[in-house]
Amino acid sequence: MSSEQNKELIRKELEAWNNKDLAAFDQLFAPNYVHHDPAQPEVTDLEGMKQFAQVMWTAYPDFNAKLESLVADEHLAVKRYTLTGTHQGDFAGMPATGNQISATGMTMFRIEDGKIVESWWNYDLMSMMQQLGAIPQTA
Questions:
Q1: What domains appear along the chain, each with residue ranges and CATH number?
Q2: What is the pLDDT of residues 46-80, one digit of tens each?
Q3: What is the pLDDT of residue 95?
Q4: What dihedral do alpha carbons 46, 50, 51, 52 form, nearest 10°?
């Protein structure tokens, strides 16, 4: 696929997160998808990612990911984004705080035959936990 087609695929992936559209995940990700996220090592495949998405959407019903930048070639794409939401449900063992969060992140995707087959996630979980009051803010 062309770099522009891959960019469009990643825009649709972000849209699926923002629209809480699990059915779209099945269309965008390959059945043999592999997920890499050091903050969620138990999430390794598409079903695990879908379960994690539901956790995020429950914890942050107003979850939104804003695309900041996107680059792609014929096989890879990288998005930089900002996540926002209001903590209204359990997240990482923490009951709802009502706190607003805003955190940046980047994800690299490997794409084959028009589907996402692998991704590597990196986002500012420490900042999120500080905003929730789970980790003290530094001066």
A1: 3-132 (3.10.450.50)
A2: 999 999 999 999 999 999 999 999 999 999 999 99
A3: 93
A4: 100
For residues 45 and 33, give the distance between their C-alpha atoms in angstroms, rounded to a whole number.
Answer: 6
- How do beta strands 76-86 and 29-36 pair? unpaired
User: Alpha-carbon distance 35 to 60, whole Å?
Assistant: 21
Cβ-contact 76, 108 below 8 angstroms: yes
**Separation CA 14–CA 81 (nearest Å):** 9
- Separation of CA 59 from chain center: 14
pLDDT of residue 139: 66
The average pLDDT across 30-49 equals 95
Beta-carbon-side half-sphere exposure of residue 74 (alpha carbons within 13 Å): 1
Residue 35: count of CB within 10 angstroms of its CB: 21
At residue 3, does pLDDT exceed 90? yes
**pLDDT at residue 12 greater than cutoff 70:** yes
State the CB neighbour count (10 A cutoff) for residue 98: 8
